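stage 2 :: seqdesign
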């Protein structure tokens, strides 16, 4: 079903920004098999979008460039519908009504690409339904639902620059974090996150190390980010040769820093100005029209 997502058609709209791991350090392994991570995370203006309106019965529809991939998937695994059902259970348990709702997802972000698309959609679903159902639930209850949906969902619920530790549940906001011009690129090749973790050479890498005095401007943050790393990038490159090519292509356009996000295969490049990022994305698209490239800006801390 093709739907143009516009404010006039829905009671509420929510954006689901892409989650970018500027750094991802794997620092340990829990006894239950979960990896311990230190992450420097930011979010982009480029996003999926969700619309919500009251309905006689629950309804869900899709549009956007990457919607066909979700339409083919098992509906039971859709994080938007899981978020709806879990929040409804919590609402009923707390004595609130949670009537039927029509949710539309405009899927603009690549699927399973290391930028938290599904997690961002789930988090936006929680925010949108809290509004349309007028729920006054404790924040820890909502965060508990988010964590049940996935380790990235609590971060996406915040959608502001942060440092996350543990499996992603321990969050420290960075209110003074700057906005960056950015190019996102993806070769549209799937990478198995469990396989990436299995191929990690070490599970106990050094933690995220920032100076005791946080960087306080754009240039200082760039230099700090360059000294950090993504421990998942080397094993991901062994699974997907395109990641190395993609990173080199982004760097060739004058990016001041480039790295893979999450478990891949999306890579990002940081640029000094948005116009440079737009020119780079256009150039990259001409070089590889079969790949995904997007110029965007990240959301400033405290925005």
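stage 2 :: out
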């Amino acid at each position: 079903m093709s739907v143009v997502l516009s404010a006039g058609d829905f009671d509420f709209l929510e954006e689901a920004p892409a989650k970018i791991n500027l750094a991802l350090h794997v620092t340990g392994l829990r006894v239950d098999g979960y990896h311990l991570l230190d992450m420097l995370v930011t979010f982009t203006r480029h996003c999926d979008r969700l619309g919500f309106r009251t309905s006689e019965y629950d309804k869900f529809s899709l549009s956007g460039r990457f919607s066909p991939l979700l339409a083919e998937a098992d509906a039971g695994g859709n994080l938007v519908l899981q978020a709806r059902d879990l929040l409804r259970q919590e609402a009923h348990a707390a004595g609130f009504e949670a009537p039927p709702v029509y949710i539309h997802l405009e899927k603009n972000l690549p699927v399973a690409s290391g930028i938290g698309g599904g997690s961002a959609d789930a988090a936006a679903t929680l925010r949108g339904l809290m509004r349309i159902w007028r729920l006054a639930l404790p924040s820890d209850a909502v965060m508990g639902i988010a964590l049940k949906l996935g380790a990235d969902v609590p971060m996406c619920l915040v959608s502001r620059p942060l440092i996350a530790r543990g499996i992603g549940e321990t969050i420290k906001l960075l209110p003074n974090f700057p906005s960056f011009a950015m190019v996102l690129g993806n070769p549209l090749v799937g990478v198995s996150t469990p396989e990436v973790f299995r191929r990690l050479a070490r599970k106990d890498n050094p933690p995220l190390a920032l100076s005791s005095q946080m960087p306080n401007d754009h240039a200082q943050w760039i230099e700090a980010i360059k000294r950090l790393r993504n421990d998942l990038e080397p094993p991901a490159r062994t699974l997907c040769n395109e990641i190395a090519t993609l990173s080199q292509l982004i760097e060739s356009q004058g990016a001041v820093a480039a790295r893979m996000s999450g478990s891949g295969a999306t890579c990002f490049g940081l640029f000094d100005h948005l116009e440079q990022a737009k020119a780079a994305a256009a150039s990259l698209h001409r070089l590889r029209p079969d790949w995904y490239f997007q110029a965007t800006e990240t959301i400033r801390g405290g925005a």
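stage 3 :: structure notes
- The chain has a mean pLDDT of 93.
- DSSP finds ten helices and ten strands in the chain.
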